[in-house]
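=== Structure Prediction Worksheet ===
Name of assembly: unnamed complex
Input type: mixed (protein and possibly other molecules)
Chain count: two
Listed entries:
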Amino acid sequence: MDWQTLVLSFKLAFCTLLVLLPVGIVTGRVLAYGRFHGRTFAMACVALPLVLPPTVLGFYLLEAFGQQAVIGRWFHQLTGYPLAFTFAGLVCASVIFNLPFAILPMQRAFTAIATDIREASWCCGLSHWQTFLRIELPLAWPGIIAALILVFAHTLGEFGVVLMIGGNIPGETRTAAIAIYDYMQVLNEDAAGRLSALLLACAFISILLINLLNLRFVNHEHKRNL
Amino acid sequence: MNTNATSDYLSIDVQQAGPIPLNVQLSCGRNELIVLVGPSGSGKTTLLRTVAGLHPARHAYVRCAGAVWSDSNNRIHHPTQHRRIGFVFQHYALFPHLSVYRNIALACRNLPAPERQQHVRDMLCLVNLEGLEERIPSQLSGGQQQRVALARALARNPSVLLLDEPFSAVDQVTRRKLRRELAQLRHKLNIPILLVTHDLDEARMLADRMCILQEGALLQSGTPQEVLTRPATAQVARLVDLGNLFTGVIVRHDATRNYSCIRWGDVELECTLRTEFSIGARVDWIIPPENIILHRVDRPSKGEHENPVSGVIEQALALGENTSILMGTGHIGAQLSFMVPTHVARRNNLQEGTAITVSLLADAIHLMAPVPVPGKTTPV
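=== Predicted Assembly ===
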């Protein structure tokens, strides 16, 4: 088993989760409750990676992360490291690619909270921040957890963007999905099979968990409406 | 100023052009229960939300217990959290993930823990809901949820209680029970209560004062008795579902006998003296159904000379112990609606086609200045 690629894949998935958890909650909530000019445009931007071919996204990110580009140069000046073909670049790309998988379910979870429940909280004297912590977050958590599981599974299996941004550097950017492709190139079907089976299991367990969460949520809603 | 004793413990002045037009000035005394009645979109709930600070009206002035909550002229708008309000939402808006105890405790979380526990218990006792502290809202019936919502609204010791159609989501039996409980509870609260409802029976039973709203305008404010028997205009009469609304012309005033006379078709009707209407003026008038007295066929009675009107029964509909009679007055082209006990209807063999005569009690005929309503004509 190619543990190095697996560890890297999991590391990438966890780093992406860490970034997208606050980003998803804040953006999802703003899109759910905010009424501002450009909301539709913002929602289109968030959803764009869903329909954009990974290679196209990878191409533009590679252009942006290069040391001649503003973002790449700025990051290099700040940290002394380049963005393209590094793990940091991979995390950035993964975050951007996973934005819709994190934000859209969280937005839906916040939207599902009835307006009068939030207003009732204000009428009870709770500030907006207290309402967020004590009412909104507990009610939105099934959606938030589902989003995180989706992001985790999606990052583990991501191929196109990773290949474009990270290339295939062992220990730095060579994730499990890239390794499977590599193994097949050299006709090492056993190794490719083992890794594929593991990713398949991860994906299946993720979907199972999301369904279980949804089922629990639906049951809860059903009981509420009885 | 001792605001406790004044009739404007709660003062509201709200004006806005849209999205829902509002132009309402209202004062409410301490311990007064005002019921806001009007069709959907008349601005009742928006008015409540403005008091709560949930709706930022273009021009709003809200003062309660001596504290100004909103004053758009002076750019004052206290957020909802800083207003001592209790709000019961139409669908209760209980926090679904919290137990009954925690739903209520959240509203009085500033109290020290032991005091808070006692306060929550007191609130549950007040709404007759002891023993259900650990249940979550989904494990409660509609009536119980409504009580929790009321307990939560009262837990903050509010200066005003706002109830937005609080009984609309429960069945008829529970609704009656909850109304009785509110009628008992309100005397213990000693705060102004604003209640929004579509239900006129509810308004009649609970209100100290009824406010009739339409398209954001306050059409009439008065006791249920005043509004339901002396509506200000035909528009109000229609909104409170009063039948027997007609148009007539003032024929004469007789100050010595204290009556005015109107012509209704070819009939002249006497009513209480209303000299503010000039001779020849068109007026709208109503008569409550309970003031239409059926003449007995077999035995004439003393009151038969009071505004007698003859006609033919067009519909006799038995509705339990009462029968609804629709009497057509062919010569006038109008229909009078009234009820008689079903046993009376049977004894007098009241059925479609039967010729009858009724008296319209003069004291009960109420004249109103006409307000033109497009497409609505009533016979003179």
